[in-house]
From TrEMBL:
Gene3D superfamilies: Phosphoenolpyruvate-binding domains
Compartments it resides in: Cytoplasm
Cofactor note: Binds 1 Mg(2+) ion per subunit.
Protein's recorded name: 3-methyl-2-oxobutanoate hydroxymethyltransferase
Reaction catalysed by this enzyme: (6R)-5,10-methylene-5,6,7,8-tetrahydrofolate + 3-methyl-2-oxobutanoate + H2O = 2-dehydropantoate + (6S)-5,6,7,8-tetrahydrofolate
Keyword Transmembrane tagged: no
Chief localization: cytoplasm
Length: 271
């Protein structure tokens, strides 16, 4: 049975219980108050204020340009809407890599200024010190492995990661290190489904997949992709549930026609 009607607020403890009893965790991105209100009312377990806002909200080619201040703005907007979901926020590029003190300060700013419930960091062994320092301060941390978009210029491609044995073995080592450091969950992005299954079964914390197969403990998508607001982006892992691009395009064109024809506003739409 879904936890939707049983509890008032999703917590890291609830997410752990969901993994233990085999209940899948639902997760989508959210960046603003209006969308977060709808998603929370729908019963999403987790809302991710993703640095993907850099792409879908600001039009950048990568996630790298978005700043900590901008992430806090988006996170605060989402938090004001949410009554039930657990809200986790991406630490943006440059706010945690290579400096655990800066990572802690960035995480503290997100928690204090937005009211978020946790933060997410990309990477494995190389960021363990930052993860540990943040968790020691009492801030929940979610990991992110596989395709890590903040490292796109290092990879040079958005293709599937960890297909080769060496990279797969590193990923398996990294997930155990993140779990040992105290992460409450890990996002696995764009890896072979067999590896997603193996990793998920090896951990006692939940895994959230995006292009990582059906055996992860939950799934996440960028909401703009899922509802068809993002034109022309249709990777294999994406299931588009509605095409809002065409719906909104049609509505806007109808509005233009009515304005041009002096049909809007009519007598009932004036004072």
């Amino acid at each position: 049975m879904s936890v939707h009607k049983e509890i008032k607020r999703i917590t890291t403890h609830i997410l752990q219980e969901m993994k233990q009893r085999g209940e899948k965790i639902s997760m989508l991105t959210a960046y603003d108050y209006s969308m977060a209100t709808i998603l929370d009312d729908a019963g999403l377990d987790v809302l991710l204020v993703g640095d993907s806002a850099s792409n879908v909200m600001a039009g950048h080619e990568t996630t790298l340009p978005i700043t900590l201040d901008q992430m806090i703005y988006h996170a605060a907007s989402v938090i004001r809407a949410v009554k039930r979901a657990f809200v986790v926020v991406d630490l943006p590029f440059g706010s945690y890599q290579g400096n655990s003190k800066e990572a802690l300060n960035s995480a503290i700013r997100i928690m204090k200024e937005s009211g978020a419930h946790g933060v997410k960091l990309e990477g494995g062994e190389e960021i363990i010190e930052s993860v540990q320092r943040i968790i020691t301060a009492g801030i929940p941390v979610m990991g992110h492995l596989g395709l890590t978009p903040q490292s796109i210029y290092k990879f040079g491609t958005y293709s599937v990661r960890a297909k080769e044995e060496e990279e797969a073995n590193k990923l398996k080592s990294d997930v155990l290190a993140l779990q040992a450091a105290g992460c409450f969950g890990i996002v696995l992005e764009k890896i072979p489904a067999t590896l997603g299954k193996e990793v998920s079964e090896s951990l006692h914390i939940p895994t959230i997949g995006i292009g990582a197969g059906p055996d992860c403990d939950g799934q996440v998508l960028v909401v703009n992709d899922m509802i068809g607001l993002t034109k022309g982006f249709k990777p294999r892992f994406l299931r588009q549930y509605i095409n809002l691009y065409d719906e909104i395009l049609g509505a806007a064109q109808a509005y233009i026609r009515d304005v041009k024809a002096n049909d809007f506003p009519n007598e009932k739409e004036q004072y």
